[in-house]
Amino acid sequence: MVAIAVLDACILFQGRLTDLLLCLAENGAFDPIWSDEIHAEWSRNLAASNLHIPQDRIDWRKAEMDRAFPTASCAAVPALTRAVRGMCSTPAQRKDAHVVATAARQIAASLGKPSISPQIWTVAGAGHPP
């Protein structure tokens, strides 16, 4: 089983680090995971930065990432994000609850639905366990 890694906006915002990690992923070190919310966050932050990168280049980069890693996009499940957010104790934790929810959803899916509480599967959007 290949390791998975959720690449959050703070990682995808940084060009060289993103290039390094995606090169490692391309060579089989791990399977990268992200969500549309993560894409939106790094794209928005990069556009607002003082790096003066045109929006069309940012859009191209996102499209290339999705093309190179077609299974990387993992839809965040709103109910799971809310559940994770409810367990957070700080604003920073609540802001990043979607990242934990994305990871939990992908881990649940990659495990092939082992015997875990049906409530967890329902919240994770993975249906019912076998």
Could you explain the architecture of this structure?
It is built from 8 helices and 2 strands, in the order βααβαααααα. It folds into 2 domains: 1-73, no CATH class; 80-130, no CATH class. It has helices at residues 9-12, 15-26, 36-48, 55-68, 78-86, 91-95, 97-110, 118-124; strands spanning 4-6, 31-33. It is mainly alpha-helical and 130 residues long.
- Supply the number of structural domains: 2
Structural class: mainly alpha
- The global form is globular
Calculate the mean pLDDT score and round it: 85
Rg: 16 Å
Quaternary class: single chain
Number of strands: 2
Order of helices and strands: EHHEHHHHHH
Low-confidence stretches: none
Strand order of the largest sheet: 1-2
Portion of residues within helices: 55-70%
Q: Alpha-carbon distance between the termini?
A: 20 Å
Strand content: under 5%
Major β-sheet annotation: 2 strands, parallel
By DSSP (H or I, 4+ residues per run), the number of helices equals: 8
Overview features:
single chain; 130 residues; mainly alpha; two-stranded parallel ribbon; globular
SSE topology sketch:
Layout: E1 4-6, H1 9-12, H2 15-26, E2 31-33, H3 36-48, H4 55-68, H5 78-86, H6 91-95, H7 97-110, H8 118-124
Helix pairs in contact: 3-4, 5-7
Give a concise summary.
The protein is mostly helical and 130 residues long. Helices cover 60% and strands 5% of the residues. It has a two-stranded parallel ribbon.
